[in-house]
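User
Class, as today's exercise, I want you to study this protein, comparing sequence with structure tokens, and judge whether sequence predicts the tokens.
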Amino acid sequence: QVQLVESGGGLVQAGGSLRLSCAASGSTLSIGAMGWYRQAPGKQRELVAAITRGGSTNYADSVKGRFTISRDNGKNTMYLQMNSLKPEDTAVYYCNAQTLWFPGGEYWGQGTQVTVSS
């Protein structure tokens, strides 16, 4: 089992920055790719950014050039640096981890609220 705990959310003005963290515990050696998702009120959960264990990344078009995902495997922690925030970035942000071990699966954090005021 893997436990994921997000932190770093909050209220920020448009144009500001926030840094989210996702700390993993438990069977952390089983973790492969990780990612950040977000869900705004009335909308489906969407992928924001993902990173492999080796550090390869991909981003949603809406955040390219503004957000940076990273991970420190030694600290079992993933980060999301969010710059130039916009009101449309307002959502609950969730940490996700994919397991490498059979039979596969994924884990989710409890989410952290990010609110960007105009």
About this structure: DSSP finds no helices and eleven strands in the chain.
